């Protein structure tokens, strides 16, 4: 509080420490914190989707074993499913790019595994 508290940006003088202590122990804090935490998590998920879209999947897969690739595939699929359910603001381009990434991953796997996965991943 001393080095970066609100007294540096506000001309109002008072017991800032006491005010924040009361706020942190009040029921309002839990509600406020929950909302802020969800906003931050949503932002992180959207950034994660953006980074998945930009990733060079082929380069990443070069030294990975089959089980690691399938695990990653499942994670990407889950991220895409969750995003389309929870965040209608996810762009159609992002969805299309992630679907393309999923197809790239599947096509890198052996034929028998590809046929199994293609039926499971036909609709994101």
UniProtKB/TrEMBL annotation:
One of its GO terms (cellular component) is recycling endosome. One of its GO terms (molecular function) is guanyl-nucleotide exchange factor activity. InterPro entries: DENND6. This is Protein DENND6B.
